[in-house]
Design goal:
48% of the residues lie in helices and 21% in strands. By secondary structure, it is an alpha+beta fold. It has a seven-stranded antiparallel beta sheet. Helix 2 packs parallel to helix 7. It is globular, with a radius of gyration of 23 Å. It starts with a helix and ends with a helix.
C-alpha cells in the first residue's frame, strides 16, 4: 500500500494552523469581553481593601515591640508573579538577611492566601528555639526550604516547605539556608471573616513571639 506522505504532511500542517487560529480566536474573545476585566479589577480592589482593614486594625506598638527597626506597614501589588496577579501586606519590613524580621500576607491568584514570617539568621528571636518550634507545630507553620525568601514558585508551587520534627532542625535550617522563613496557608472566607482570621493570626504571632 502506498502512502501519500505529502498529503499527510499537508494535513498535519493544516491542523496545526487551524489550532493556532482557534487559540487566537479564543484569546480575542477573551480580551474583547470587558466584564472579565471589570471582575479582575473588582477582585484586586476587594483584596486591597481587605488588607487595608487588617492593617488599620493592628496595634503598631505591638509590632514595634516585636522588632526594631520597625519600618511600617505597606500594601503592594503586581500582575506578574508566574503570570498571575498578587497582593501583599507587609507588617514590619526589615528584610536584612542577618537581623531582619517581617510578617507578610500574600494573596497569590491561583494559589491562595499565605502568611509568611521571615527571620534573619542572627535575630534574637532565634535564641528562643523551643518557643519557635512550638509555634510552628501549634499554629501549623511549615519551614520554607529555599535559600531565597522571595522564590515563591519554588516554595509554593513546587512545595518546598515542610513541618519541622524537632527543635534541632531550626539550627540545621539556619546553617543550610541562612535565614528562617515560615509559611502557613489561610483559606478564603467572606471578607469580614477573612479580616478576622488574618488579624487573629497576626496577634497570635505577636503574642507567641514576644519576649518572655
Amino acid at each position: 500500500m502506498e502512502v501519500d506522505l505529502h498529503g499527510l504532511q499537508h494535513s498535519s500542517g493544516g491542523n496545526r494552523k487551524n489550532g493556532k487560529v482557534t487559540e487566537f480566536n479564543e484569546l480575542v474573545a477573551f480580551i474583547s469581553d470587558p466584564e472579565i476585566f471589570e471582575k479582575i479589577h473588582l477582585a484586586k480592589a476587594k483584596f486591597t481593601g481587605i488588607f487595608s482593614r487588617v492593617a488599620n486594625g493592628l496595634s503598631k506598638e505591638r509590632l514595634k515591640d516585636l522588632h526594631q527597626p520597625y519600618k511600617g506597614i505597606k500594601i503592594s501589588k503586581g500582575n506578574e508573579l508566574e503570570r498571575c496577579p498578587y497582593q501583599v501586606l507587609d507588617l514590619i519590613r526589615d528584610f536584612n538577611q542577618n537581623s531582619g524580621f517581617n510578617i507578610r500576607i500574600l494573596n497569590w491568584w491561583g494559589r491562595g492566601i499565605f502568611i509568611i514570617v521571615f527571620i534573619g539568621k542572627n535575630h534574637p528571636i532565634l535564641d528562643r528555639d523551643r518557643q519557635l518550634f512550638d509555634l510552628a507545630i501549634q499554629q501549623h507553620f511549615d519551614f520554607c526550604a529555599c535559600r531565597s525568601p522571595w522564590d515563591y514558585p519554588f516554595i509554593i508551587d513546587l512545595k518546598n516547605h515542610y513541618q519541622p520534627k524537632s527543635v534541632g532542625e531550626i539550627h540545621f535550617h539556619l546553617t543550610k539556608f541562612g535565614h528562617l522563613q515560615m509559611l502557613k496557608s489561610i483559606p478564603y472566607e467572606s471578607p469580614d471573616n477573612l479580616i478576622s482570621s488574618l488579624s487573629t493570626e497576626i496577634y497570635t504571632l505577636c503574642n507567641l513571639l514576644k519576649k518572655e
